[in-house]
Design a protein that fits this description.
Chain lengths: 371, 314
Amino acid sequence: MRKTWAVGLKELRQIARDRRTLLILLFIPAFFLLLFGYALNFDIRHVRLAVEDNDRTVESRRLISAFTNSGYFDLVALPRSGAEIERLMDLNEIRAALVIPEGMGRDVRTGWSGSVQVLINGDNANTATTVMGYSLTIIRNVSTELVATVTQRPVVPMISVVPRVWYNPELRSALFLVPGLIAYIAMITAVVSTALSVVREKERGTMEQVRMSPVGALPFIVGKSLPYFVISLISALIVVFASMALFGLPMRGSWLTLLLAISLFLVGALGLGLLVSTLADSQQVAFQVALLLSFLPTLMLSGFIFPIASMPSAVQAVTRVVPARYFLTALRGIVLKGSSIDVFWRDLTALAIFAVAVLMLASVRLRREWQ
Amino acid sequence: MDTIVVSNLTRRFGPFVAVDRVSFAVHQGEIFGFLGSNGAGKSTTIRMLCGLLKPTSGTASVDGIDVGRDPEAVKRRIGYMSQKFSLYELLTVDQNIRFFAGLYGLSGEQFQKQRTFVLDMAGLRGRETSLARDLAGGWRQRLALGCAILHRPSILFLDEPTGGVDPVSRRQFWALIENLAHSGVTVLVTTHYLDEAEHCHRIAIMHGGKLAAIGTSQELKRLFAERPIVEIQASSPVEAMRALESLPDVEKTSIFGTAVHAVLKSSGVDVDSIRNELERVGLEVHSLEAVLPSLEDVFLDVVERGETPANARI
């Protein structure tokens, strides 16, 4: 349609002349990727550890070096009493403490069970669980070695386990988070920029002038969205490449499917932005509503950080209308698992349905406004 | 021939009646002015005529098309220039023209012809690559007008087209409007500037959603045929007003710049007695003379009466 093209061309020229906005749209997403990518990390390293060694035997020193050599703990204090440990914990100078009672080594050597105490700062339940896990594993390993030493016989477990982690063998949380980050950033920029562009026309009065012409509501919004689609797509690809370069995000699937998934997701995001623009009359309101509708659902309900399967079923039902949820499944599938399209075609369909629904709604509202 | 026919047009917003049973007709090639205070219903009426707002009741036909039934067709026949000179600031003169031409489906030779016409009319030849935001008030006004008539509409709606523009540019603008009207375009203008309203062939004054008065400038001024207006320059206008209002022969007073206009109740009043009265209360009267009624006098009078005078309709 020639009129759609005229609108699109005008929009593009406006964006091109507004250097600042263009740069923001293209590079802020990559900037946020850097910021959050390096900051967001579930891997617990450098846990500050205090050790109160009341035993001072070969066995206790073996246990302590197992902790310090694990790579997860940093020995930062050698307190002499429980009170000192408490003080260190309160001041947050340590996150965990290992207390070895006098006689532990002697118990082990004489064939009895020795016991040690591990104190963990529980103000962050997630990290506390992880630290507890690390500690138990380390202690268990040392325990097995000590049995072998004391009994002079190699220890063979009844059932041996060889764990293999697929798709993310190093269990780097970055690989889990970065795809979500891509979705998160793309969603926000696409929704906000589109919402603002339409509301700006309302505010300046040019919308009224355009309404007077025989261009219809649908060609108008499609024309306005086209340049933003192209820019968002380029921006999203910049983010993907940056993720690969800086965070080692792999690409095990097909680029074409990736492009398809991103495009479908962006069309839906742009449609949502257009819908928001029909709900707001000023740029401030548009910005806030756009941010609210893209920020919170994508952060909480898309599987970005919190797994959907762990949510109560009522909330899981709500996640069904969050497009980022489907995009993340497809994205992780393509990038981490190298899955082909027959695995996540349902998710792509869901994205398409969302896009169509939201565009239709926006067009209906705009038409009603124009009437 | 009447290109615009309005009959009992009404628009309500909830309990508020913005336009109340307004009826009038506009002839082809006429420059028709719409006067009224803010909130009088001018903009609402225009928007209904443009097909932007649906009438609550009553009918209006623009170029033969019923606005209530087929607003889209109306949009194609008319040109509209909004108060805000809706131009795209970040686009050049040429790009703005191209955009609006594209909206109306103009292309090829027809587009080139129209583009040339608009550039010449607006005096923007050689400034095609200037950004719209860099244009001064008068240029932007003419560009906005140009963009509104690219598709050669036979009817033009101008909503407060001279706001914030210097007097010289305003006069040039009205010359353009008069040219358009000569060539057969019907022009409907709303304006605040009463001196500009003199450019119009006929004027309608709206007040409180109703059509309070309609007619040529001369006809409207005949409202004051029986009631002369006296302009007084005195040492203290406010005190003069107070003194005048207490006089039995004076119907009402208003301030006009530094002078006071007093509307006398009948033409038989002795003007000198007024001078004497003012001097009696200690005011120095610099001048006192009968003046011809201006549209401002008419406007204030109509607004005060809030009713349709008997002999003012055509």
